[in-house]
Amino acid sequence: MPQTPIFTPIDSWVGEHQAYRQPIDGQYSFPIVEAPRSGPARTAVYNEASDAFRQLIATAIADGKTLRARGSSWSLSKVGVPDHRLINPKALRTGFTVPSRRVSASYPDDPGMLRFVECGFSVNAVNRLLFDAGLSLKASGSNDGQTLAGVVSTGTHGSAFRFGAVQDFVVGLHLITGPNTQVFLERASYPVVTPGYADLFHADLIRDDALFDAALVSFGSFGIVHGLLIETRPLFVLHASRKVMPWNAALQKAVGALDFSDLALPRSASNLYHFEVFWNPNEGTPPGEAIVLQMYEGAFPADYTPPVWDTNDAGMGATGLEIMSHLLGAIPDPLNDVVKPLLNSQVRDELAEYEKTGTIRDIFRGETIKGKNLACGVGIPLDRTLEALDVAFDTYANESSVLPLLISTRYVKGTRATLGFTRFPTTCVLELDGVNTKKVRDYVTRVLTGLESQGIPFTLHWGKYNAYLTKTRVRAMYGDAALQSWLDAREDLFESDDAARVFDNAFLRSVGLSPTT
């Protein structure tokens, strides 16, 4: 059957974390089509969806409407939400291996590690697909409910500080850029497929570093991301350990410089994959103790058994967002100094110590979205981390209220993506996570204002709370050259100005990332 999306009128769209409500006209949804397991028929099913995407763009142009393909709507900002029409592509889950004959002769790695996945794949589904082949993603966000296209497009970071963010394992993008155009985009400096592979999808192969780096993190504004070519790795495990440690000079040295020489680590620091530290500011500013989550790489054992985890608890890879989400409904109300000990006890229970071993698939999963949460991810150069933490603690010390929130840090190798918020050579992500109330939002704003007033460079996660962003601030964060390169790439990829306008939205205009601004 042809892949004809069905339009359902909807008067507004609410994100999964209830962080926004956006008036829209409605949503297109694709029917579930069982794709053949392999061969030309499988490619034909994929190409039918491309044809449908091109028709939707043509219709939007004719109607003067904007359009975006959505992921799982886990973003806490309107970065990827159109003014008019959404596309739900979740039924589009065709995956491909890449035959060796379709791989560039200059490609330096094993073609067997390449996978091409359609935009409807959730991270969970990609994990299952890869696990069955003895493969793994190279990095992951804290959970697996988002679509892979969504986490890439917003720069989801994880904490693989020797590898990078999720978008950094993407080496090819199939973009639908107009009623008559589609491109297969990769870097000129890192060609992966032959022109014949792009021909399978009726796409023009474009090798251009600037275009590719701009399109990686572009929030769905460079057209419809129909497919992603990713590099994977053989299955491995992570030995995860969450422990309470004193917030002393040794831990400060690790947090501020990733120097672990004074810490008594359970394994070799050379195998450290994930490093994350939590503070509860209601225990002090700063508290005397921190909760430290460390994960060390290990070989995948033949007798692997997934770790057991209580489904009533936040997942093993839980960030502050998941922790606070789990506490919704249990947090004392009203919050004051009298009930602060109860709140602190609840947070300690959620951040209980553990020792587990599991794959990326089994550790970074498990979020249950329960209500109005707030998460702000602040990218900071590693060498300014301790200063930024001082700002967060000092700001909280001056609060007149008890706030339900956590402060944490994660670390990610810098990205090549032009507007990837993990843009510093090693980026510390300072995370401010809590319940979405006006008082918590005001606290976050005061922290960001403090960072700015002290001259600490920072960026904000595009898919988290980022109301602080303005045209002036975005330009200061990324620089004139990067912004112009991104805008030029967006203009170059579209077949017409009319097609480009289809993928505009209010968020782009508000932060100076639209040619109309």
Task: Tell me briefly what this model is.
The protein is α+β, with helices and mostly antiparallel strands.
CATH topology of the largest domain: Uridine Diphospho-n-acetylenolpyruvylglucosamine Reductase, domain 3
How far the N terminus sits from the C terminus, by CA atoms, comes to 42 Å
Largest sheet: 8 strands, antiparallel
Structural class assignment: alpha+beta
Count of distinct strands: 22
Low-pLDDT residue intervals, each spanning 5 or more residues: none
Mean pLDDT: 93
Number of domains: 2
- What gyration radius follows from the Cα positions, in whole Å? 22 Å
The CATH class designation of the largest domain is: Alpha Beta
What is the general shape? globular
Which second-level CATH architecture of the largest domain applies? 2-Layer Sandwich
Distinct helical segment count: 15
Widest beta sheet: strand line-up = 18-15-17-16-20-21-19-22
Helix content: 25-40%
What percent of residues are in strands? 15-25%
Describe the protein in words.
29% of the residues lie in helices and 24% in strands. It is built from 15 helices and 22 strands. Strand 11, helix 4 (195-200) and strand 12 form a beta-alpha-beta unit. The protein is globular. The mean pLDDT is 93.
